[in-house]
Design goal:
Elements lengths: L3 E4 L5 H15 L6 H11 L2 H13 L3 E8 L2 E10 L3 E9 L8 H15 L4 E7 L3 H9 L3 E6 L2 E7 L2
Parallel strand pairs: 4-5
Antiparallel strand pairs: 1-2, 2-3, 3-4, 5-7, 6-7
The protein binds acetyl coenzyme *A.
The site of acetyl coenzyme *A has 22 residues, from α1, β4, α4, β5 and α5.
């Protein structure tokens, strides 16, 4: 499946919330309850917060918010915080039916292009230790487990 990857704009905020909700329910089924997930989406993916972040990502360079579009519809998104020499992959979520089609890989490589242009030498991320799909994706894409923080693994990828 070929997805078009581009910077997200504010008009996709509601689509993003829907992708996040569906992806979270699929990813964390058996890990978090539906109530927990709904609360998380309401708080961390509130329209107001996302509008701020998307707007910031379009004017300032420390935040990169990418969308993956299939037939003009949002199928997934990725948010990365880019600092001087390192980056943190904050969020990477696809709608369940669009997983396993290399769209996540394409989002990651687009973000990595930007990281390289900015001289980033390592990217870190936190992934739930029971999120087998996420962990296996990151391992296959060059990340290594470097430690543990509560329920999460800390993973790191280094660039030349
Ligand atoms: N079932 C099982 N394994 C899968 C699946 C799936 N549906 N999708 C991807 N994978 C794993 C496999 O190991 C796969 O390797 P394989 O092809 O050799 O089997 C590997 O990921 C690479 O597959 P891609 O097609 O490149 O990955 P994809 O486009 O699906 O993107 C992603 C990966 C972003 C993790 C996606 O599957 C997804 O959205 N998953 C749910 C959300 C999630 O876990 N996000 C990470 C949270 S951590 C954070 O955001 C920092």
């Amino acid at each position: 499946m070929v997805a078009v990857i581009r910077k997200l704009s504010v008009e996709y905020v509601d689509a993003l919330i829907e992708v996040a909700r569906e992806s979270w329910k699929w990813t964390y089924a058996g890990i978090y309850s539906d109530e927990y997930i709904e609360r998380w989406i309401r708080e961390k993916y509130s329209r107001e917060k996302l509008l701020n972040e998307i707007t910031r990502s379009r004017s300032e360079s420390d935040l990169l918010f990418l969308g993956a579009f299939v037939d003009l519809k949002l199928s997934g998104f990725m948010e990365v915080k880019i600092k001087k020499y390192n980056a943190e992959l904050l969020r990477l979520y696809l709608k369940p039916e669009y997983t396993h089609m290399k769209i996540g890989r394409d989002l990651l490589s687009e973000a990595e292009k930007v990281m390289k242009e900015r001289g980033v030498s390592e990217c870190t991320l936190y992934v739930h230790s029971q999120n087998e799909v996420g962990i296996s994706f990151y391992l296959k894409n060059g990340f290594k487990v470097k430690g543990r923080d509560g329920n999460d693994f800390l993973m790191v990828k280094k660039y030349e």
